[in-house]
Amino acid sequence: NMLAHIRYATQGEVSLENVHPFTRELWGINWSFAHNGDMPLFANTDQDIFLGKTTSDTVHFNAVGDTDSEAAFCAILNALKAEFPEGLPTLSVLHEFLNHICDEIIAGRSEDTIFNFLLGCGQYTLFAYSWPGARSGSTVWNGLHYIVREPPFSTARLLDVDYTIDFSAVTQPNDRVAVITTKPLTEEAGWTEMKRGELLMFDKG
C-alpha cells in the first residue's frame, strides 16, 4: 500500500502532528489512515468518542494532533481492539465490522458529514470508504474514485498535465494495481465513482 495526501487543513493547525497519513500499530500490524472531509462527531478533539464496545477503560489509542481525522482514526482502532481482543479477525468479518462503525459515525449527521477515507491494514490490504459531499459555500465535490489496472498494461494520458504514462514500463506482468483518488487522474475509461456509504476492500492489489 502507498498513501499520499495533500491536506487543505480545514480543521486543526498546520503542523507535523496533523500530517496525513496517520499511522499506529495494532496486533503487530501497521495501520495507516488518510481522510478527506469534515466530521462533526469528532469536531471537538478534546472529547473522547467511543465507538462500538469501546469504554474509557479500553481506550488504547489517542490523537497526537488536533484534527477530526486523527481522532476518528484512533476511535476506529479503539473499537477494533475492543471488539476483537484476541487479534485480527478474517478480512470478511473485519470488513463487516468497519461498515458498522462507519454507519455509527454517520448516524444522525448524514447531511453535515463528509467522510472519505483510506485505511491501510498491513502491507497488502486497504479499505476505502466514501460519504461524499461539498463543504458549505463550496462547489467542490469531495468523493472517491477508483480504477483497477491488470495485464496487459497500456498507456494513459494525465488529465491535468500533457503527459502520457506507459504502465507496462513500471509494472510486472503479474501485477494488479488499484488506484483510489478524489478525482480521476487519467483520461482512460474504467474510473468508477464510489457510491455514498460504500466500503470497498482491496487485498493484494
TrEMBL record:
Keywords: Glutamine amidotransferase
Domain Glutamine amidotransferase type-2, first and last residues per copy: 1-205
InterPro entries: EgtC-like, GATase_2_dom, Ntn_hydrolases_N
Superkingdom of the source species: Eukaryota
Matching Pfam families: GATase_4
Claim: Amino-acid biosynthesis is one of the keywords in the record: no
Family matches, as PANTHER family: GLUTAMINE AMIDOTRANSFERASE, GLUTAMINE AMIDOTRANSFERASE YAFJ-RELATED
Protein name: Glutamine amidotransferase type-2 domain-containing protein
Organism per entry: Phaeodactylum tricornutum (Diatom)
